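SEQUENCE-TO-STRUCTURE ENTRY
===========================
Question of interest: how does this chain fold, as expressed in backbone structure tokens?
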Amino acid sequence: MSDKKRGLSIGQKVKASLVKIMSTYDDTFYEEQIRSQEVKLNILNAQVEEYHLPKLIAHDSDLYCPRAEKNKVRFYYISDIHINHKLKANFPEKASEEEIIKYIDSVINEMLVNYIERDSAEWSEATLLITGDVSFDFVIAKLFYTALRSRIKKGKIIVTLGNHELWDKVHCSLSLEEIIKSYRKMLNELDIILLHNELLLIKKIGSPEKVSEDELRALSNEEIQEMCLTVPMLILGGIGFSGNNRKYNATSGLYSNVITTHERDMEESLRFESLHDKLVNAVGSKDLIVMTHMPMSDWSTKPYNKHWVYVNGHNHINEYQKNEFKTVYADNQVGYYNDTYMLKGFNLGTTYNIFEFLEDGIFDIKPDEYKKFYYGMGIPMQFKRKTGSIKLLKRTGFYLFMLEDKGKLYILDGGKPKKLDIMNIDYYYEHMVNYSIGLNEATRRFREYLEFVSDEVMKIGGSGFIHGTIIDIDFYNHINVNPQDGTIMYYNANAIDDRIEYEVAETFLLNHRPDLHKNLLEVRAKDNKNALMLTGNDEAVNNLPTLSADTSMYRPSRLMKSLQYLTNNKIIRVWKNIVLDRNYDMLKE
């Protein structure tokens, strides 16, 4: 990147040279923090085999706005900024402390261009993960993190150290534990969380809670499950180390004088791996981020946990993998020579399931437990029934709640009991898995079409949130998809009985979202098969809006919304015995 983009004009550099000649230019800071580290820079640059020029890897959340979903939080990530290399490249001979601070500020300003910090009643949505190698100089690292926290006022910043943080000249005679302690003190003062072989519990309400390595080792699996039961998000963090890397480990100088033997490197790797494995056994199905500096292959030979997200840096080989076996975000490693900074991100849920670790079976639960289950799942629900008992049926991850009252059984659709034909609770437990599979298959084609239209809405800048048969463009503007014939109706609504309906996307958007109309035209110019391109040429289509107070369109939407709890949350809220017939198609009904 040019000096101009970094805020350093040619004039400023000339001015600096003149000030130097006039003996009023103070480059003491440069001499101490930059020039004195040239030996380390030369050593690192000589290890060319280990490092590769990073390539920009695009993944799903970079292509366009991911489908808007409730109960999701954005995690941004970046690693291997190597600010010392950039300072030396931009200031090869001299710089004042003010110029260095200004440069660091410009890096952070560029880095945070796509960072969005939103606050909600329960969650500060933006969380930034930095997985090490910011700087091998403690003073420079402190300048960086101080400037970063001054820009991010409320969002969480969570950090692990990298091997380069162990190179600092101030810390060269310290042990690993002393270096961690020094960084922890500095970052704590900035309200930045440092994780080193620790588990972070990110709660729905309140501050994150850290569980130390010793505390984690002392807990049984059952105690860990109980501790994490109402925690929606867990983060396990640390350097990770490189004991399993036969070529690039402590013996090749990765950790300077702090760790020099392969045996010690292996010891540190096993420490982290054992914490990882303990959590796999205890809470392997929960949402958890494993953030390390080193890739997993450096510190473990075990397989990835398919339910977790792994974020790492170190090798400057940008890698993104998301499949049924693993999710790895290691594709935002800046590297030594890249002078472009951009945060990347992914979304994870903020929900939890209080019955997650319950064995399969039929259980009596209290009304308060039923309410807490829905609260943890992030689903609004009111249950005011005073009579009867609530039964929980859990089988292979599916949930069905029933009300037993005066000898009769009802299925609970949220807070509403619905009549059932068969009064044998064992019947529902026996068939609930096959029923779930059949119900998902019966609605599969329509769900796929809803998601297709939702994607098209997001391409023009709309929300795309799906609820029932309705897709949101924004709070007031929506699309309804008819489940019987797939036709689309656009409408603006102030209330369910106060709608302005349209058959043509252009007229609708021109009247209510002209900004998105422009986006639609641009998308159509590139894609003639866009789902919103339904008309224009058909003279039979009515281009005029119509006013409607009819609420009948919401009935199939409410049914579809109840069915979506099965696909989205594995909760059965509708029971029709005919679904067990493999040829059943609910949409035809």
